[in-house]
């Protein structure tokens, strides 16, 4: 059996018996232990105060956006694009009977945007955990690119 070599400072004896069988068991034990120690000794990268803003990808990873959620978001976004092509605007009414799912999705985007903006401003009326939004900057930019209205007239 081939056992990878490990740094000698990580090899710990299991006994002082030098018979061949015990040496093989000792090497196996030392390999497992040193592999475990290697995991513990991996340096952790701590955020710096002067670190630049997160990239969009890092922001989305922090926000916990999963692939299936992204696909669902993109599907609704495409429906909104079609709505704009048909109606000339992105103000989907809350009571849009042709596609109530789209109406709820648009309302949710506005809600997430409001949460994100109040978190950035530092709204002191709510706690950080309830204010933080999963809404990414990229999504905001995509919606704004098609003329999305964040604060629609009250009739929408």
From TrEMBL:
Xref: InterPro entries: Helicase_assoc
Domain Helicase-associated, residue spans: 69-148
Gene3D superfamilies linked to this entry: 6.10.140.530
Name of this chain's protein: Helicase-associated domain-containing protein
Species the sequence originates in: Cylindrotheca closterium
């Amino acid at each position: 059996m081939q056992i990878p070599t490990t740094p000698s400072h990580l090899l710990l004896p299991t006994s002082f018996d030098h018979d061949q069988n015990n040496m093989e068991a000792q090497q196996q034990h030392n390999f497992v232990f040193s592999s475990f120690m290697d995991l513990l000794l991996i340096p952790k990268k701590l955020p710096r105060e002067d670190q630049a803003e997160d990239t969009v990808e890092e922001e989305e990873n922090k926000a916990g956006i999963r692939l299936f959620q992204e696909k669902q978001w993109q599907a609704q976004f495409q429906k909104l694009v079609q709505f704009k092509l048909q109606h000339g605007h992105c103000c989907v009414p809350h009571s849009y009977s042709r596609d109530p799912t789209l109406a709820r999705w648009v309302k949710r985007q506005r809600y997430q945007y409001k949460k994100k903006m109040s978190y950035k401003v530092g709204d002191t009326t709510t706690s950080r955990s309830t204010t933080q939004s999963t809404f990414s900057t990229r999504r905001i930019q995509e919606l704004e690119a098609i003329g999305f209205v964040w604060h629609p007239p009250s009739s929408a």
